[in-house]
Amino acid sequence: MAAADWFARAEAVEPAPVRPRTRRPVQRPAAPVRSRRKARATQRRVRGHIVWMILFALLLFGVVFLNVAVLRAHVAVTHLDQKRTQLQNENEALASRLSTANSAPKIETAARRLGLVPAPAAATSYLDLAPHGR
Q1: How far apart are CA 45 and CA 129, in angstroms?
Q2: Sign of CA dihedral 47, 53, 55, 58
C-alpha cells in the first residue's frame, strides 16, 4: 500500500483486485543437481584412482616377474655350480689314475710282462744332439 492510501478516505480507496490462487504443486526434495564441472572433477578423481591402481598393479607385477627371473637364474647357477663340482671331481680322479699309470714301478712291471729288461749300467752311453758350432 502506498502512503496516500493510509490517509485517504475509506470511500475513495478501492479494494485491491483478488488474484485467483493457483495451486502450487507439492515440492518434493529434488535430487542434488551436480554441475557438469563437479561431475567432471569427480570423474577425473575416479579416473585418477583407477590410473594409480593400475600403475601400482603393474609395479607389483614387475616385482613378481623380477623375483621369478632372479629365482630361475639362481636355480640355473646352482645347477651349474653342482655340474662344475662334479666335473672337477672327475678331473681329479682321472689325474690320479694317470699319475698312477705313469709311475715308474707300473711301467717297469708292464715292460717285464712284454719281455723287456733293464739295460746294464756299463752299456749305457749318451748322445750329444746339440749342433757342433755351439
Answers
A1: 97
A2: negative
